[in-house]
Amino acid sequence: MERHEVANTVSGATVGGHVVQAGSIGSVHLHQPPTVPTPRQVRAPHGPFVNREPEFAALAGALDRVEEGGLGVVVFTGLGGVGKTELIAKFTERHRERFPGGDLYADLKAYRHQGGVDLPGLLAGFLRALGAEPPAVEAERFTAFRTATAGRRCLFFLDNVEHAAEVRALLPACGLVVVASRRRLPALRMDGAEVRRLGPLSAAAGAELVRGWVGAGRGTDGELAELVELCGGLPLALNAVGSQLLDRDSLPVGRVVAELHDREGRLAMLEDEESDLGTTYDLVHERLSAPGRALYQLIGVHPGPFVSAELARAVGVERAEQAVRELRGVHVLDEVVDDDGEDRFRAHDVVRLHAYGRTRELPDRAGLLTGVVAYFRGRASLADRTMGRDRLRLQDPSGDDLPGFASDAAALEWLYAERADFRAVVEEAAAQGWHGEVWRLCESLWPLYHGRKLYDDWIATHRLGVESAQWDNQPAAVVKMRNQLARAHQERKEYRLAAEQLALATELVPLVTNRRVVGVLYETDGLLCLADGRPGDAVERFTLALAENRGDDHGEIVQSYNLAQALIADGRPEEALTLLAEATARAGRTRDNDMLMKLPLVRARAHRALGQLDLAVVHADDCARQAKERNQYAKEAQAHTLLVTLAEELDDAELAERSRERLRQLAG
Fold first, then answer.
1. Do 342 and 417 meet the contact criterion of CB atoms below 8 Å apart?
2. C-alpha R_g of the chain
3. Eight-class DSSP state of 40
4. Do 126 and 106 contact (CB within 8 A), yes or no?
5. What is the 8-class DSSP label of residue 331?
């Protein structure tokens, strides 16, 4: 056998250990490891970006800490479509050069199966992107990931995270981790994360965003602001509308706004095949528990913006508190802080729209809506009866199976906090033809509208109240609704409109058997006489009103209060004081706290008319004190206005400034 010698030849070489320095090498090949490209996985932003500077500042601050060799974690939570992904894409584009190790992206939704996330599979992708071979043993990939990221400054964008544990398992040795989630993840603060909620765009920022798409020449500022409001400030919703405007250059912004004002029109936008909004909220809905879905249905049926566990229980939602926590966890509900201290939550307008779409064909939709209306009518009745036990009412009491109120002030604050719900519920009940519910709700809302002077709501609801009482064939209720509507116009100094309502109500007096109902017409007419500078006629009207209320303690006290004001205006303050003393004693005996608060103000005016300024101050101050305790801000403002006048007449600078300061607080 012939033997061939094979040898490598090296000329001009110095060999030292494993190091070879050579002038030329024959057949030796030294293989260099393959070059791994720097991963750049975070997508580019889609277009103009506005109004997120605080969030950019938080990310930049975390990046500064990362550049010192540490680990930074920033979490953005918020409603689907609010712009979390676009925010992080824009930040990455701005600062890409500060991540020499690259930027990596993982959508955890793509790795989520049967409620769990395939974390080893996700890490295998990260490791390959970083140039490391994933260990075959899945458990070893976590330590391999930390090794691969040690000393390497990268950005890791974890999208659609649902649980804090998912983030903890994916933390690198160093670098910046940015998380986007539709769920609240407060537990990550324990890991040093900065957790920020991303809210909708303001009207100005949203308009700026739309102008960036369609140009400066389309749509007025008002139309664009309205467009943003109708889209709930969600960039994803605005993007859907912006696409329509870009596709049709001749389409006026105003026409789009008009179409979106219709709930079905907005729902069409939500369900558009090119919009991700419907799919986004479908996924949220599908993953809710049974109580969570029941609460979501309530959101879709309830015409108003606010929900509570108490309302949910009243309409039959099981484990209502659990359902509220669940929907808060996925940013479907946000807590609303009101002075009444009750737990109240608001659903985003786009969520409410989606929930409405899911409940349009609900078999028991009418039954659920009936429960909502019954809840608000019952609690309004309770609040009204708490604030004025003996006030004239045509309806029977309701709501005794619902939680009551600890005080007059608590009842008024609850009514005020729910004012948007009440208007929406009245309007929906009218649309459904539930006429008895409408006028009864309006009757119970008198202390809210009269006490807090919510004139727009007052007039809008009572116009429906008049119509519903007519359909319900209740003449006394028609008279009462027209009278309460007249009082709103009278207080707004719309005297002609008030007189028209009184005239229409008077036509029905022959059909009314309850004389106290007739008395309220004399009362309002007397107030119009006072406003018209006819105090003598006012005295006559209030005297008639007093006669119609004989035998009813509260009715007689109220009309004595009114008659006293007319007597003062007619130059008869002594008679007024006599009448007021009797009314005050009667209010004390019957514990008519509402009138005990109001009577001192008229007594103060009578004493002022007699030149008894010190006594006038005492009574005006008494009214102001009681009104403040009862949260009756309008009456308190009247008392302090009189105190300022009295202080100026007495040359009491301290009293004048004290009352002016309180008036500034009430105005604010």
1. yes
2. 36
3. B
4. yes
5. T
AA letter at 414 = W
Mean pLDDT for 574-581 is: 96
Mean pLDDT of 165-183: 93
Please provide residue 489's backbone torsions phi and psi, each rounded to the nearest 5 degrees.
-65, -40
DSSP of 437-491? HHHHHHHHTHHHHHHHT-HHHHHHHHHHHHHHHHHTT-HHHHHHHHHHHHHHHHH
pLDDT at 494: 96
3-state secondary structure 181-223: ECCCCHHHHHHCCEEEECCCCCHHHHHHHHHHHHCCCCCCHHH
Structure tokens at 299: 């959101």
For 337, other C-beta atoms within 10 Å of its C-beta total 8
Provide CB contacts within 8 A for 171, sequence distance 6+: 71, 73, 177, 191
Least confident of 30-34, 318-322, 333-337, 612-616: 30-34
Q: What are the residues whose beta carbons fall under 8 Å from the beta carbon of 233, sequence distance 6 or more?
A: 82, 199, 200, 201, 202, 203, 206
User: Which of 606, 604, 611 is closest to 625 using CA atoms?
Assistant: 604
Tens digit of each residue's pLDDT (9 = 90 or more) over 95-116: 999 999 999 999 898 888 766 8
The answer to whether the beta carbons of residues 461 and 418 sit under 8 Å apart is no
Residue 33 tokens read as 């490891």
Environment class of 103 (CB within 10 Å of its CB; exposed 0-12, middle 13-18, buried 19+): buried
What does the mean pLDDT of the chain come to?
87
| Residue tagged 């028991």 (tokens) | 364
Q: How far apart are the first and last CA of the chain?
A: 110
Counting residues of the chain whose pLDDT is more than 90, the rounded percentage is 64
Which tokens is 5 given?
Answer: 């010698």
Quote the pLDDT of residue 23: 46
Q: Which of 202, 263, 198, 184 is nearest to 238 (CA)?
A: 202
Q: Quick one: which of 535, 545, 532 has its CA closest to 572?
A: 535
Half-sphere CA count of 226, side-chain side, radius 13 A: 14
Contact 284, 80 (CB under 8 A): yes
The per-residue pLDDT for 331 is 74
pLDDT tens digits along 39-63:
999 988 876 666 688 888 899 999 9
Spatial separation of the C-alpha atoms in residues 474 and 513, rounded to whole Å: 11
User: Would you state the pLDDT for residue 15?
Assistant: 36
Tally Cβ neighbours within 10 Å of residue 94: 14
Burial of 442 from C-beta contacts in 10 A (0-12 / 13-18 / 19+): buried
Task: Produce one character per residue of 603-630: b if its CB has 16 or more CB atoms within 10 Å, e if not.
Answer: bbbbbbbeebbebbbebbbbbbebbbeb
Per the structure block, which two tokens stand in for 529? 């006489």
Alpha helices in 188-339 (DSSP H): 203-214, 221-230, 235-247, 253-261, 263-270, 277-286, 290-301, 309-314, 320-329
Distance in angstroms (rounded) separating the CA atoms of residues 40 and 661: 60
463 is written with which tokens? 């116009």
Question: 328: pLDDT confidence band, cut at 50, 70 and 90?
Answer: confident
Give the three-class secondary structure for 414: helix
Q: Is the pTM of this model over 0.85?
A: no
Q: State the helix-helix crossing angle for 515-531 and 535-548, rounded to 10 degrees.
A: 170
Q: What are phi and psi of 345, to 5 degrees?
A: -130, 150
d(CA 619, CA 639): 9
Cα 632 → chain centroid: 24
